[in-house]
Design goal:
It is built from 13 helices and 17 strands. It is α/β, with parallel strands linked by helices and 449 residues long. Helix 6 packs antiparallel against helix 12, helix 7 packs parallel to helix 10 and helix 9 packs antiparallel against helix 12.
C-alpha cells in the first residue's frame, strides 16, 4: 500500500488521560474475548414472547433518525420514551400517549426493567455504548443506530456482552436489508469480476469543521443540557453548535462523516468479501483539529488474506476529498467500486454496474442465494421473539464499527497504525489514546449499575 501524505501532526491532537491500572486490566480481559467466542453468533437466551404477543419496547431518542426507528417498531407496544429535549419528547408522546416519559435513560431502564423486553437506541453517538450496555446488562434485546459505539473499545465490549447475554441485537444499517446489496454480494462472491484486490468507497458528505464557541449560553428550558452531555466532558451550551444534528462534527460526541456514513457503505464490501479486522490503517487529511472532524478525509485500510481470499486494500474518501474517477470511470457522489482481476463493479444503495461494459454486455446474475429480508426492523423484532439470527447483529456490526472508527484513530494520531485486533492494541501511543476514552462520573461503562 502506498505511503500516505498526511498533513497533520500528532501534536495537534489533545492528549488523553493515561488509563488506570484497573482500566488496563479491563482492556486486556476484553481483548482476550476476540479469540474466545467473540466472533460467533449467540442463540438468544433472553426470555422469548409469543408470536401473537406484542413486545414491550422502550425508545431512547425521539426525533430525526430515532423517529424513523420508532416508526419501524411502532406496531409493537411502545411503553416508554426517553429524550433530553422536552419538545421532541412531547411531540412523540402525542403519537404514543400511553408511553411513560423519561429524560434520563438510566432511570428509564432501571425503573422499566420488569416491564420491557427491548430497547431502541437512537440518540447521539457518545451515548450509544452507555445506553446499549445498560440495556444488555438488564437482559434486554437492543437495536442501536450506527455507528454502534463512539470508540473501538466500546464496540468490542458491546459485542462481547451482547454475545454473553444472548440477547437479540441489530445495528441501524437499514440498507443492509435492501435487495440490491444482496445481489451485489452474490455477484462478488460468485467471482464475476475475479479475485477482488481493491475496493474504493466514497461519500460526498462533509460533517466537520468549526471551532468551539468562545462564550457559552444558558441552554433553553426544554433541554436538559447536563443529560445531553452525559458521558462527555462538560462544556457550556451554544445555540446551533451541538443540538440538534451538528454534534456529528465534534470528536466528543460524534465521528464526522466517516462515523456517520462508513457503516452504511463499508458494510457492502465487508459483507461481500467476508472482511473482519484491518491490520494496517493510514489516513490523509487536513491538519488535525482538536475539537472537530475534517471536512474531507481519505483512509487506506489493509485487510489480510483469509482462507481462499487474498489480501484486500480498501480506501475510504469523504467530503471534499472524494474521487472524480475510480479505475478510469467517472463516479457519482456516493458509491463503492470493487476492482477484481477480471473486471470492476460499481454499486450504491439501489443499483450496480459491471465494467468493462462490452465484456459484461450479456451478463446474467448468478442464482439468488440470499433470501429477501423480512425488513430491517422486523428482522430484529422476530429475533426478539424466537431467537432467529439478525444480519447486522452486534458481533458483525461490532467488527464493522471497529474498522470504521480505526480510520479516525489513524487520522487523529497522525501516523500509520499497525493494528493487533486480538489484543485491541495499536503499535504506538499516539493511536492507542483514541481506542478508549474517559467518562464523567455516573456514566462510566466499566462500572456496572
Amino acid at each position: 500500500m502506498r505511503s500516505p501524505h498526511h498533513e497533520s501532526t500528532a501534536s495537534a491532537s489533545p492528549a488523553r488521560p493515561t488509563p488506570s491500572p484497573s482500566r488496563r486490566r479491563f482492556v486486556q480481559t476484553l481483548a482476550a474475548t476476540a479469540g474466545a467466542g467473540y466472533f460467533s453468533s449467540a442463540a438468544a437466551q433472553a426470555p422469548l414472547r409469543s408470536p401473537n404477543e406484542k413486545l414491550q419496547i422502550a425508545c431512547i431518542g425521539t426525533a430525526n433518525r430515532a423517529a424513523e426507528d420508532i416508526r419501524g417498531v411502532a406496531h409493537e407496544a411502545i411503553v416508554a420514551l426517553c429524550d433530553v429535549d422536552r419538545n421532541n419528547l412531547q411531540r412523540k408522546l402525542k403519537e404514543f400517549p400511553d408511553a411513560t416519559p423519561y429524560e434520563d435513560y438510566r432511570e428509564m431502564i432501571d425503573k422499566e426493567a420488569d416491564r420491557i423486553d427491548a430497547v431502541v437506541v437512537g440518540c447521539t453517538d457518545h451515548h450509544h455504548a452507555p445506553a446499549t450496555l445498560r440495556a444488555i446488562r438488564a437482559g434486554k434485546h437492543v437495536y442501536c443506530e450506527k455507528p454502534l459505539t463512539h470508540t473501538v473499545e466500546e464496540a468490542r465490549l458491546v459485542a462481547a456482552e451482547a454475545e454473553k447475554a444472548g440477547v437479540a441485537t441489530q445495528m441501524g444499517t437499514q440498507i443492509h436489508a435492501g435487495d440490491n446489496y444482496r445481489r451485489v454480494v452474490e455477484i462478488i462472491q460468485a467471482g464475476a469480476i475475479g479475485e477482488v484486490t481493491d475496493v474504493h468507497v466514497w461519500v460526498g458528505k462533509g460533517w466537520g469543521g468549526g471551532d468551539r464557541p468562545e462564550k457559552g449560553e444558558e441552554p433553553p428550558e426544554y433541554l436538559n443540557w447536563d443529560l445531553w452531555l452525559g458521558p462527555a466532558p462538560w462544556r457550556p451550551y451554544a445555540s446551533g453548535r451541538y443540538h440538534p444534528a451538528q454534534w456529528r462534527r465534534w470528536w466528543d460526541f460524534g465521528q464526522g462523516t466517516l462515523g456517520d456514513m462508513g457503516c452504511h457503505y463499508i458494510d457492502l464490501p465487508f459483507w461481500a468479501l467476508g472482511l473482519t479486522h484491518p491490520t494496517e490503517i493510514q489516513a490523509e487529511g487536513p491538519p488535525v483539529h482538536p475539537e472537530t472532524a475534517p471536512l474531507g478525509l481519505v483512509v487506506h485500510y489493509r485487510f489480510p488474506a483469509v482462507g481462499d481470499r487474498g489480501p484486500v486494500n480498501l480506501t475510504w474518501y469523504d467530503g471534499n476529498r472524494i474521487p472524480r474517477e475510480v479505475g478510469g470511470m467517472r463516479v457519482k457522489a456516493n458509491g463503492v467500486m470493487f476492482i477484481g482481476n477480471e473486471g470492476m463493479m460499481f454499486a450504491d444503495y439501489t443499483s450496480y454496474r459491471l465494467f468493462p461494459t462490452e465484456k459484461f454486455a450479456n451478463f446474467e446474475p448468478p442464482p439468488q442465494t440470499i433470501p429477501p429480508s423480512v425488513g430491517h426492523h422486523q428482522e430484529w423484532l422476530q429475533a426478539c421473539r424466537d431467537g432467529s439470527p439478525t444480519t447486522c447483529n452486534f458481533q458483525y456490526s461490532g467488527r464493522l464499527t471497529e474498522t470504521v472508527l480505526l480510520g479516525n484513530v489513524a487520522y487523529r494520531s497522525g501516523r500509520t497504525v499497525q493494528w493487533d485486533a486480538a489484543q485491541l492494541q495499536a503499535d504506538h501511543a499516539d493511536a492507542q489514546q483514541y481506542i478508549s476514552k474517559s467518562y464523567r462520573t455516573g456514566w462510566d461503562i466499566h462500572e456496572k449499575a
